[in-house]
Amino acid sequence: MKKILSVLLLLSMLLAVLPSCAYGENEDCGYVAIDGYLFNVLEKTQKNEFEKSGYTVTDSDNEYIATGDTVTDKKGNTLTVVIYGDADGDGEITVYDYVYVRRVYLGTLKLSAAFELACRMGDTVDVYDYIYVRRHVLGTYKIGTVPHRTPPADTEIDGNGIKIAYIPLDNRPVNKERVEFLAASAGFTLLIPEEELYRTALDNMTPNSDGSTIGNREALLEWLKSVENECDYFVISLDQLISGGLVGSRYLSNTDLSFEMEVSDYIVKLSQRKHVVLFDTVMRLASTVGYQGYDLDTYNTLRSYGKTARKQLSGSELTVDNIVAGYRYDQYGNKISVSLSKTVVDRYFASRERKLRVIDHLLTNASETIERIYIGVDDSSPEITVQTNEINYIKSKCSDNLTLFAGADELGLMGIASVATDVYGQAECKVTYFGEGKDWAADGYDTATLAENIENHFNSIGATMDSEDENALQVLVLTRSNSLSANADKLMRQAVKNIENGVPTCIIDASDNNKTLPQKMLDYDYDIAKLLGYSNWNTVANATGIALSNAVARYVYIYKCASVTEQSNNAFLKALTFSLIKDISYKRMGITNLSDSSAYGPATVLKRINKSEITVKDGEYATHGNVSVSNFRYPWNRSFEATFDITVK
């Protein structure tokens, strides 16, 4: 309330001396002097034009009048210029200004008075400041020039039709169908290359038409360049773009990295023009079973070899060259013996080195212009392994736009969710844990606790965790527990209560159990399709990223977008149907028949979805077309990647 009153008072002062000016229009409303600062100067104002208004420039080092410049008015008063959005003081509003505003908002950067004032419209830097400055930079919005101006009363944004260029990790359902559903459910148009350009073919699969078994790196780069002018947002898998996918990144071992560096440099330059979310992986402990002749014995031997503890480097010793030099030696400096051919071992380490050198080049040159960088530790382990020095090196190069995760398959979804919060605004969420495992290790793959894992995911997509807003998204997390069934019941009772009272709700099953909560999800009587997100898929990191991405993107869309389309509703139904069937029917009992109408079969799940309304706006619900599934298949000839078609009529 104090903030609102102070803003109203300041606005009344401004209105007394300003002609009327519509918010958001970049026009000259007249300069205003308040407390020694001069506001309402436009970006790119030439000094000679500025001085025609009666001011004298006494201290300025830039081509244009800029934040921090000193000027004198007609009465001889000395004033410091503040241009809203010009946080770096060069007189222009560029991507670097957005980076400054974002860092000030996150609390990782402190600026001196005039420059801090340039970051905000209100009493503090808030989410709208960095949204408006970023959108101004992208050319999708023109910020106003009035300082301390609060956002207009109607802060809803029409994000329908915003285009996202997406290069997936590979063509598995979690990276393709789930991402397509998610983007459409948030009102976005997803541009994605033809599947053959990013398709992986294992040894038991038909190669791509050009004879390759991984994605076409050169064609993907050309595709990315071809859609650059069409899109403002880019979600890019570095593994796909430089290695043809996750499998390729574990296998390619070339030492000439000219193409890889070209791609890296292009991404950095792209991020200076557009909003880029990049995701990559730390190579896992072993290569891929069923690819290029690798069998299960080779995989197990390589994984054991990779898990052997290496000497841990720190300080000035933690360099790429030293990490690579230590690959073959244990923590005591002894060469590690392994019953594999020299060819296999040499390729294994060459692949590791290749990936490490590429990400090092990108992080060294990316500065902070890449909006978000997600790096997943593939097949991570809490033990000291061959990955540990690589992870610590990447951490040493971290800035506030880089996050490491103990998972990889959720990162494409999280990239889309982060775009949603950038377009529509921060997601107000409230997390509640059920069970005593909040501070336990998330699972056998994670080096962090469950709470740290959850917080990592929230922070990296623009979501709060402890909002008291009555409309906040309630995220209910089932932890590991010695009383799992009882805590699952508590969670479900809360979920049912939320749904009956119109409270937006997401469920994350972090219990490391594939039966207890999935069973109860169908045992309780409630409108299951009113859930905004759910997952129990694979690792805790995967489940968290999948559930949270779906829920957050949909939540900010339906609560903050000016209009919710039928197309987005249908896409949301597909996303939720996929999660419920895959993560309940598949995880609990395996799927052999989509018509299975047993207690937890796909037909039973569908029946519950089809009799349930969905949330379409704040406190508003609607019926929907009939959802059906068909064409159950294994595109990678493995049950893990099982998928099916979903139709809404």
Folded structure, characterized:
The chain contains 21 helices and 19 strands. Mean pLDDT is 89; it is low at 1-29 and 146-154. The longest helix has 24 residues, at 342-365. The strands form 5 sheets. Strands 7-6-8-9-10-11 form a 6-stranded parallel beta sheet, sandwiched between helices. With 649 residues, the protein is α/β, with parallel strands linked by helices. The radius of gyration is 26 Å and the shape is globular. The chain has helices at residues 2-17, 47-51, 95-106, 113-117, 127-138, 177-185, 217-226, 238-243, 246-249, 258-273, 296-307, 320-325, 342-365, 388-396, 411-424, 450-461, 484-500, 516-523, 540-560, 566-589, 602-610; strands at 32-34, 37-39, 56-59, 70-72, 78-81, 163-167, 189-191, 233-237, 275-282, 372-377, 402-405, 429-434, 473-478, 505-509, 533-535, 614-617, 620-622, 627-633, 643-648. Helix 20 packs antiparallel against helix 21. The protein has 3 domains: 2-138, Dockerin domain (Type 1 dockerin domain), CATH 1.10.1330.10; 163-418, Rossmann fold (3-Layer(aba) Sandwich), CATH 3.40.50; 425-648, no CATH class. The two termini are 47 Å apart.
